[in-house]
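Lecture notes, unit on protein representations.

Consider one protein chain, 351 amino acids long.
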Amino acid sequence: MKTLHILLSFLLAVILWSCGTKAEDKPAEVKTDEAVVPVKLTPVSTVVRAEPVIASGIVSSAEEARLSFKIGGIINQMFVEEGQTVHKGQLLATLDLTEINAQVSQAQLATEKAERDLGRVKSLYADTAATLEQLQNATTGMNVAKQNLTIAQFNRSYAQIRATVDGTVTRKIANAGEFIAPGGSVYLLSSNRRSDWVVRVGVSDKDWARLRLGNHASIRLDAYPDQTFSGLVCELAQAADPVNKLYEVEIRINPGKVKFAPGLFAKVTLVPAQSRNYTLVPVESIVEGNGKEGFVYTLANDKKHVRKLPVQIGFLDGDKVLLTNSLPTETAVITAGSAYLTEESSVVVKN
């Protein structure tokens, strides 16, 4: 009887253990099914492309001038106003010549006196009443007086301002009756010839090294949002700006049939001649993107798990991303479902 009770107890324990094992196995199967993420694969490709340089700048004229008087004085007359169109050689402003004419007269009188003194010394020297040194000093004095007269006449000729190019007065800085110092700006003048319009932008040293004279550019202006203008790189700075550390690039722009004015804001896309190979992937395959860096997921060797690969982002091209680093050959990246993946995820490929 005792043996029978022992056997019954053992059978009951085995049955309870079996039921518990089945109850525990069932949730585990459900958990495994929930961890499988359906994904879609897209093959990668390569493309040869020149990475564009994006910059912004201001439209201006290649022929710009700060017009000023050579000498200081009181401004007598100003003949043009801000915004006026002028022609090369046109008189724009003059100084009061009272003091300047007096200086010319002084120099003229000094020259005449030096010539008389030289004539007397020559006569005395011929009669041996003057020394050679006196003759030489008189000759030097006359030459100095003539040079002073030349200086005074030259200064008088530049006591007026004339337009240096056909253009537009973009700014009038002084007014009649004001005292202006030598070299002080009076007018800012910009050429209005259609071939003189340029856009100046600043680029980094990395982008500057990829650019060449003659590279093409497309330009968008806020003033004309529906138009795209073409341009060519015509000048590359050989030193960085000491303030912003950028290199200035000058792009000559074709205005077409529209009118330009200095100061228009421009967005420029430069296309370097230097090209390189890029890996092309869909934009939805990039996860954890942070500026120039990100990650993509690919299938592991067992086709049931994933690998997370770092990538270097070059630039966007529509719905594609151009990567500067290459991926392993015959790689397909995960697109649909990539946002839900981790490196421990199990996946199933859906068509």
